[in-house]
Amino acid sequence: MYCSFGEQVLQGGWDVDHAMYSTPWYTYSQMYKKHLVLVIMRAQRPVEITVGHYYSLSLQSCELIIQNIYFFSMFLNQINNKSKHAAVKGGSPLVNVE
């Protein structure tokens, strides 16, 4: 599922700064230390996969999609049942005759 892959990327992004800091950075050159600081600063921003620069793929967003699909299908089912009920009574399916 795409959302679980997006969640793995998001979680992996959070681990980068910890991994970089746990290296023996104090033994490396000044240039390496400067680059390390830049990598750690960038790693503190969330890494995410987006759809159309609008929608982030994560478990939370996947849960939201599933909830919306469920509520929308229940809404359509309720409308369908009301129109069937009105058709049986002989009324218009768009007008509630109760």
From TrEMBL:
Keyword annotations from UniProtKB, A to Z: Cell membrane, Membrane, Olfaction, Receptor, Sensory transduction, Transducer, Transmembrane, Transmembrane helix
Q: What is an annotated GO biological process for this record, any one? A: signal transduction
Q: Which residues cross the membrane?
A: none
Q: Under the cellular component aspect of Gene Ontology, which terms does the record hold?
A: plasma membrane
Q: Where's it found, cell-wise?
A: Cell membrane
Which residues does UniProt assign to the signal peptide? none
Give the GO molecular function terms: odorant binding; olfactory receptor activity
Q: How does it sit in the membrane?
A: Multi-pass membrane protein
InterPro entries (UniProt xref): 7tm6_olfct_rcpt
Q: What is its main location?
A: membrane
PANTHER family reported for this sequence? ODORANT RECEPTOR, ODORANT RECEPTOR 19A-RELATED
Question: Which protein is depicted?
Answer: Putative odorant receptor 85f
